[in-house]
Design goal:
Blueprint: H1 5-32, E1 44-49, E2 52-57, E3 68-74, E4 87-91, E5 96-98, H2 103-109, E6 116-119, H3 128-136, E7 140-141, E8 143-144, E9 147-148, H4 150-156, E10 160-163, H5 171-178, E11 183-185, H6 194-198, H7 201-207, H8 211-233, E12 240-243, E13 246-247, E14 250-254, H9 259-266, E15 270-271, E16 281-284, H10 286-293, E17 298-301, H11 308-313, H12 322-325, E18 329-331, H13 343-347, H14 352-363, E19 377-378
Parallel strand pairs: 3-4, 5-6, 5-10, 6-7, 10-11, 12-15, 12-17, 17-18
Antiparallel strand pairs: 1-2, 2-3, 8-9, 13-14, 14-16, 18-19
Length: 380
């Protein structure tokens, strides 16, 4: 019997390996004919099958060491055993909590904003539609992004909480899951492609059973964006652009592969830090910025200022830049909602075509003679 034991172990291991391999082959076969419906977003994949979809969120935060896979399951649908280990979300959702203002426009565009039952720090929400729901008490304030009120969320019992993580250590997310709440980690904020950010509307289309509507809306945005981009493509890049402003002792400029820099590239402007590799921003000294951008003819400033005088009062050295002297300073952050939320931060990611048109109007005003700026404002 002792001599037979190694053989039994070998046979059992072999059968287990064959079984696992068959499961993998089954999954591979089932996805062979399925197609990822995402074209621009780098951190999202949605593969639809009969009765369910497989959604994968990769690169959920900087230097992430994991990705997340979710199964969106329609009622009575059968999900293969090989996918049972992933988080299953029953769709269409009847209630949801989201934690970023960038999600609000997606809900409204799909006409499912009434499904929203909670949001952290509701004063940040600017949209009049959703503000009306907040004022009516239909949307509860559930704390703040990294300190969500778990007890209140348990009481609300939403079908899903759509949130995000900032690094590999997320105790709040673990607490939500331990409390039996369904959590979806999204990563639209990590996208650097303007159209990539906007394409996350397809996630909400999948969650609420409105895939066709989401695709229709997104396709219109793509068409509008590409038409505007084509309009500027043949123009000479005559605008030399300074970006940002001082924050304490540091001047942050957008790197060359960032969301902001992509807009300026597509609007055909000469952005002075276009060759700075990477995404996000780079902190520089005032002196370095002045040397490079003193003669720039357009300044896209960071900050919620209404007038040039107000902006200049924050730093007396700003008057050394030609763009300031010639009153060619713009900001995208001067429009607010009723309770102080900045409209650009909420709505711009879902409407990159309008952001691009703003930039084109600034850099090549003759190309859009009848167009009025949507998000940007000139400081006078």
């Amino acid at each position: 019997m002792k001599h037979l034991l190694p053989k039994f172990i070998f046979i059992f291991s072999f059968l287990l390996l064959v079984g696992c391999k068959k499961n993998e082959e089954t999954v591979a076969a089932s996805t062979a004919t399925a197609k990822n419906s995402i074209e621009y977003a780098s951190g999202l994949s949605i593969v639809k099958h009969e009765g369910y979809s497989v959604v994968t969120v990769s690169n959920p935060w900087p230097n992430a060491n994991k990705k997340f896979t979710y199964i969106l399951k329609e009622k009575e649908a059968k999900v293969p055993d090989s996918l049972q280990s992933y988080t299953t979300i029953k769709i269409p959702l009847e209630s949801v909590v989201v934690t970023s203002t960038t999600n609000i426009p997606f809900l409204e565009m799909l006409e499912v904003e009434t499904k929203l039952v909670g949001f952290p720090h509701t004063d940040y929400v600017s949209s009049e539609k959703t503000r009306a729901l907040i004022d009516k008490g239909s949307v509860k304030n559930v704390g703040q992004n990294e300190k969500l009120n778990v007890e209140q969320l348990i009481e609300l019992s939403p079908d899903l909480i759509v949130t995000f993580g900032v690094d590999n250590n997320n105790p709040m997310l673990d607490n939500l899951k331990k409390s039996g709440l369904n959590v979806f980690i999204q990563a639209d904020w990590m996208e650097q492609s303007p159209l990539g950010k906007a394409e996350w509307i397809k996630l909400y289309g999948a969650l609420f059973g409105k895939e066709d509507k989401a695709k229709e809306l997104f396709d219109k945005i793509v068409l509008s964006y590409n038409q505007a981009k084509k309009l500027a493509a043949d123009q000479k890049a005559t605008s030399t652009v300074l970006y940002g402003s001082m924050y304490e002792d540091v001047w942050y400029v957008a790197k060359g592969n960032s969301w902001v820099a992509q807009f300026m590239k597509d609007a055909h402007a000469n952005y002075l830090w276009a060759d700075l590799k990477g995404t996000g921003s780079e902190g520089l000294s005032f002196e370095k910025v002045l040397v490079k951008a003193k003669t720039a003819n357009i300044w896209i400033a960071a900050g919620s200022f209404k007038t040039l005088e107000e902006f200049g009062n924050t730093n007396p050295h700003y008057t050394q830049f030609d763009a300031f002297k010639n009153k060619n300073v713009y900001t995208f952050e001067s429009q607010f909602g009723a309770t102080g939320g900045i409209i650009y931060y909420e709505s711009a990611p879902s409407r990159p075509d309008l952001v691009l048109k703003d930039y084109i109007k600034i850099f090549h005003p003759d190309l859009l003679p009848g167009y009025e700026l949507t998000f940007a404002s000139k400081l006078n």
